[in-house]
Amino acid sequence: MSEVPESYVAQMGSQQVTLPVIPVSDTLSIALMMVIDHGVRVAETAGAELAAHFADVKPDIVVAPATLGIPVAIEVTRALGLDDYLILQKSRKVHLGDALEAPVHAITSTSSSALLLDRARAHVVAGKRVLFVDDVISTGSSSGAALALLEQAGAEIVGIGALLAEGDGWPEALLPYEDRLFALGRIPLFPH
After folding, report:
1. pLDDT at position 91, please?
2. How far apart are CA 16 and CA 19, in angstroms?
3. I want to staple 115 with a disulfide (CB 3.0 to 4.6 A). Which of 53, 88, 100, 173 is the partner?
4. Does residue 50 come out as left (phi exceeding 0), alpha (psi in the -120 to 50 range) or beta?
5. Dist. CA 24–CA 167, nearest whole Å
6. Torsions phi, psi of 63, nearest 5?
7. What are 97-156's pLDDT values in tens digits?
8. Cα–Cα distances in angstroms (integers) from residue 154 to residues 58, 128, 151, in the given order
9. Rounded CA separation 190/176 (Å)
């Protein structure tokens, strides 16, 4: 049985963040990145660094999944000088009855869920150059579902960015987009 540390210091662009290491199963622990636990300046700096990396692809709009992708989307949108962003919802609200939907299971979730794209907002990605961002890409399954959903709505995916990429499985899951992937840093998985 491997010794699992209590925390892990990750390099995230120009910043270092200390992340608690928590179990997600009997055999695996992860360094838990909760962007909302690191303050506004950390998100602002990281968003500016992601935006700088993707500025040359000239995205029309930034898209992220709820909930922890929201601060990333806001800061990247702001740094790119854009005024609109789109959040893919994870809980069905009354106005999402006929939403476009993609099933998803994240490594940090205890149950399956779905990503939902409000049909009333689908026009903001249809025919547009879309930059998809998130806090952490781990297995790539959530991001893959989001990208499929966006393409179903007519989006052109010009980039996929994350604050951190976790483990080694995500590049294979996102293989069709490998030339558009970028993360500010990497974090390991902790098997035990």
Report:
1. 63
2. 10
3. 88
4. alpha
5. 14
6. -125, 140
7. 667 677 776 555 555 678 888 888 999 999 999 999 999 999 898 899 999 999 999 999
8. 17, 8, 5
9. 27
The predicted pLDDT at position 110 comes to 55
pLDDT in tens, 66-80: 989 999 999 999 999
Which pair of tokens denotes residue 26?
Answer: 């009997």
* Contacts of 101 by beta carbon, 8 Å cutoff, 6+ apart: 114, 115, 116, 117, 149
Question: Which residues make Cβ contacts (< 8 Å) with residue 7, sequence separation at least 6?
Answer: 18, 19, 20, 21, 31
Residue by residue, what is the 3-state secondary structure of the chain? Answer: CCCCCCEEEEEECCEEEEEEEEECCCCEEEECCCHHHCHHHHHHHHHHHHHHHHHHHCCCEEEEECCCHHHHHHHHHHHHCCCCEEEEECCCCHHHCCCEEEEECCCCCCCCEEEEECHHHHHHCCCCEEEEEEEEECCCHHHHHHHHHHHHCCCEEEEEEEEEEECCCHHHHCHHHHHHEEECCEECEEEC
**Contact of 107 with 138, CB cutoff 8 Å:** yes
On whether the CB atoms of residues 163 and 46 are closer than 8 A, the answer is yes
Distances (CA, A) of 126 to 24, 57, 122, 154: 37, 17, 6, 4
Q: Tell me how far apart the alpha carbons of residues 156 and 192 are, in angstroms, rounded to a whole number.
A: 40
